[in-house]
Structures are given as structure tokens and as C-alpha cells.
Amino acid sequence: MAESSSAQPKKRGYKWFVIGGAVILVLVLLPFVLGGKDPATVSASTTTTIQRGRLVSSVLGSGTINPKQSLDLSFQTTGIVSTVLVSEGQNVVAGQILAELDDRNLALSVLSAEANLQSAEARLRQTQDGNARPEDLAASQASVDNAKANLQKTVTGNSTSADIAAAQASVANAEAQLRKAKNGTATPADLANAEASVRSAQAKLDDLRAGPKPEKVSSAQATLDQAKSSLEQVKSDTSKAKTQAGLDRDTAANAVRNAQTSLSQIYWETHDEAGNWKKKPDDAGYQNDVDRYTNAQRDEQDAQSKLNAAQLAYDNAVTQEGLDIANAEAKVRDAEVQLQTVLKGATALEITQAEAALDQAKANLDKLKQGGTVDDVAAAQANLDQAKANLRKLTQGGTAADVAAAQANVDQAEANRDKLTAPPTDTDLAIQAAAVSQSEQSLKQAQLQRDNATLRAPFAGVITSVSIVPGGSASGVVMHILDRSNLYVELNLSETDVALVALNQKVELTIDALDTWNTEGVVSYISPVAEVSNGVVIYRVKISVPSNDPLVKVGMTVNTNIILSEKSDVLLVPNSALLPKGSGRAVQVPDGAGVREVDVVTGISDGSFTEVLSGLNAGDTIIAVPTAASDSGSRGLFGGGR
């Protein structure tokens, strides 16, 4: 509601002014209440003298100091904190580094992404330039020249002495292999190797037939014992973990009940049976009740979150117990199967396979001793025939088929060369360009991840909290920053009051906690939209605070006096002295043994005093609390006779 303040601004708010005004009013009314005197015989104590002074019409309120901006700061990635460069209470500038995470892995990712980008760009340039390096072109041309030389050699039989000598050597080697196949001329080394293979196969067969060895049985039994011991340990460990999780859950449940009890108690201390706040926004202690109730709600929510987490941990412990025990039991079963397998010894199939391997080794040995088979001789003869044909080709020239094959090789080599020198297709260019674009995006992503490991101040301000230390892990909010460069007070005004307020109006500000502090601000914002708080329609109004005095803390309660109008050196009349008269006002002045009414024209009012524009002069004496009429009858202030 619109309130008033007269004379000079009060440094302790408007409460004392209201109390003082009430005392003065009682003193003025007291003679009439106690004595019931006739207005015609009023004493000097019931009159007042018109004076000039300052008159202020205003809207009173209260709110809290807010910063220009404040923000919870978090890393945009997770990791281990390497450095913390600021402390609580430290002033920082925009962009200043506040803390850093260990970014060695992220730096390596950036280097890898840069290398991939360089590679993609090189492939794109290669495609644009004809997809061939000078060395590639030289090698391709050499392949063409070689293919043409082979074609010429095939057509003309133009073989060198070296070619013929090599072909003759191949014929001689093939003849030697044929003789070996026919005569069985195995070397002593061949026989020794074959005999060693027979002995190895016989030893393996004997080992399988001898049954399980004690050391294998002992090893398998030890594995089984270890698996059983591990199973018992797993049962013990998982049971303890489940029990502890159950205890943690019960503790969290008790905390929820305690928080609910506290919330209920605070609710009934601050609310009536209809669910409304016992105190109104303008009452002393209202904000404290709101804060207590809000904190109790937050405590109950935090306790419930911890209970949910504890219940989840318990459920996970139960599930993990089943999984771990099942895995341990499976290992016991596997060890038991392995032990039984060792105890049973070799299977019939394994013995049969070992016997077959021994027979094969003996056959190979007999073959070396007896010479080659018919098939071995035929294969050696075929190799000799091929070697002789190659020799004849070198000395006589190739067949039509040989020439055609050599020509095909020339054609293929020329096609490969032409492919290297051909211009790139649109598809090839698009593919390589897309690869470059993808590599660029990967590099930007890697750089962003690395940059996210550095926490910077988003604006200039003061650090109010730091919750990380080097070596710890960073998650969630790690710091808080606020900007005190432009403080403001936020009020909630009623519909009636906000209709009187306009932008840039002067506001007198005081803080009860700071006896000597006062300043003037201006209305900087009026919300165009109403809000409903506890069933009451309100409008948010912001008042700028020009002072950045360090004594003024964010969150302090500020008394505000929004100046609607202000006049100096005006005639002041107490509101109690004004009588309604038609559409105007009148006052009563002493007139001999009685009183008479004087019409006055009034101006602004502050709720206690009103400006007189005409009808009176400074120094005039008027009745402070006049009767309802101007006659000199016998009615008192409240209508009673004497």
C-alpha cells in the first residue's frame, strides 16, 4: 500500500514514524476524550499552527540485495583436477582461468585429429592433382616398358644368354628330381628326420596309453580346491556388502522420517489450518518463515534422494551377490569336469588319432627307403617336360597363345599408367572433400573437449565458493561467481502500489543491519505481468543500488521508500484537521468564543500531512481535531454532551 514519510528520510525505516504519529494523535485527542470540552472553549492544546515544510508522497516496501548476475560454475567434461587457481573471496576478470583438469589424454586426441586432417587433405590434393606422384608415374611407365620387352622377347625369341642358362639349369634340376623319384635316393638327413618323426609319434601313443599322470591329477585337484575356496570367499564378501547396503538404506529411511517430521513441524508453525501463511509479506519474520519452510522442504527432498540412492545400492548388491556366486559356482563345476577328464585319461579317439599319426610316420620312412611311387615319378616327369618346353621357347620364340598373353600384359600395364594420369571424377573429389570435412569436425570436437578441461570466468566478479582441490574428481557445481558491479533490490508490490510507481523514480534506501548506511536508487524495472504468491496478486519491481559499499552484502534486507512526489517549502496541515465540505475540504479556526470554517484548496498528501494551496497562510492557527460541524453547540468530539 502507499505509505508516507515526511520531513527527512528515516534511517531506521518507517515503523518508528507510524508509532510516533499514533502517540501524537492520542495526545491531541486526549482532552476531548477525557474532558468532553465544547469546541467553543477549546484550549491552546487543541490547536496547531500552520507551518511550511517538505512533503513526500511515497510507497514503502522491503526486499533483498541482489547481484547483477550470479552463476554456478561446472566443467563441461569430467576428469581429475590438476590445478585450482582461485580461492573464495577472490575478484576475477572475464575469461580468467579458474581451474584446470588433467588434459593429457585430450591433448593427444587433438594431435591425433590434426594428423588425420592432414592425411585427408593430402589425399584430396592427390586426387585433385591426378591421383599420381612422380614416383608412381615412373613405376607405372617402367611396368609398361617391361611388359613390352617381354612381348618382344616372346614374339622373336630374343632371349639373352642368361635367360637360356637359367632355363637349362631348370631342366637339369628337373632331371635330378626325376632320378630321385625313380631311384629313391634319399639323403641320410631325410632318413634321420623321418626316423625321428616315428619315435615322436610312438612316444605320444605310449603316453596316452599309460593313463593320467600324477602331476596332472594333482594340478587339476588344486584348481578345484582353489575354485571352492574362491566360492566361499565370494559368498562371504557379497553377503557383507549386501548387509552393509541394507544398513545404509535403513539409515537413509530414518533420515527421511526425521526430515518429514521437521518439515511438518515447521509447516504448522508457519501455516494456519487452511494452509495459508500465518504472517503476511509485510510482517516482521515473514521471510524467515519462508526460508525455514523452504530449507525444510529441501532437506526432506535431499533425504529422499539419498534413500533412493541407498535402495538402488541395496538392489545392486543383491543382484551382484547372485551374479558373483553364480560365476564362482560355474568355475567350481568347470574344475570338477577338468579333474574328471584327467582321471579318465585319454579317449579312444585320441588313441586312434595317435596310432594313425604313428602309421603315417612309418609310411613316410618306408617311402624314403623304397623310392618314389608311380605318382611321384609322374609328377617329376611333368616338371621336367615343362622345363624343357620353357627352354625351347627361349630358343625358338613363343606360340600364338604366349604372344597373346604377353600382349595382354602390355595392355594392362598401359591401362594402369593411363589411370594414374587421368583427371579425377566428381565422385572421387566429393569423397575426398567429405573426408576432409569430417576430419575438420573431429578436430574441432577434440579441441572443444580439451578446452572444456579449462574453467574460465564467464564474467568479472567475485568467487564466493570453491568445492574442488587438485587431485580430486570434478563433477557438478565446483564454484560460484557473482557480479556486484550493479546491485539491485527486488520488491513485490500490490496492484494498488504498482499503479503509482514509474520507471526512474527516486527511491530512498536504508538497511536495518547498517545503522549509518543510506543511499538513493531509482526504479529500473517494473514487471508487465502479474504473479500470484499465496493467493495474492503481486508485481516484481527492481530498484538499482548505485553504492558498491563492501559492507552491503548480497541477501541483506533493504527498506525502500519510492518517492512518488516531493515538494519543499509548502504549507502543511495535519490530515486530522481537514473536514470534508462538498467536493472540497475545510478547516476550523478559533473565532472569539467559538470557531468558524475556512475553505481550503489542497494538494499532495503523505498520509499524515496535506499540502494547502490556498485558504490559509503560514502562522495561522487551526483546530487540530475539529468537530463535525462549525456551530457552537454542545457536542463533543464523539457526539456526547457535557
How many strand units? 22
Mean pLDDT: 84
Strand order of the largest sheet: 3-12-16-14-13-17
Q: If you compute it from the alpha carbons, what radius of gyration comes out, rounded to the nearest whole angstrom?
A: 53 Å
3D structure, described in words:
- There is one protein chain.
- By secondary structure, the chain is of the alpha+beta class.
- Helices cover 51% and strands 23% of the residues.
- The chain has a 6-stranded antiparallel beta barrel with strand order 3-12-16-14-13-17. It has a 4-stranded antiparallel beta sheet with strand order 4-11-9-6, with no helix packed on it.
- Helix 5 (188-209) runs antiparallel to helix 8 (348-370) and helix 6 (214-270) runs antiparallel to helix 7 (286-344).
Itemize the secondary structure elements and their pairings.
Layout lengths: L1 E3 L10 H21 L11 E3 L1 E16 L2 E5 L5 E6 L6 E2 L4 E5 L2 H25 L5 H23 L4 H23 L4 H22 L4 H57 L15 H59 L3 H23 L3 H23 L3 H22 L4 H26 L2 E3 L4 E6 L6 E2 L4 E5 L3 E7 L1 H4 L7 E6 L2 E13 L4 E3 L2 E10 L11 E18 L4 E3 L2 E8 L2 E12 L3 E6 L6 E3 L19
Helix pairs in contact: 2-11, 3-10, 4-9, 5-8, 6-7
Descriptors:
642 residues; alpha+beta; 51% helix; disordered C terminus
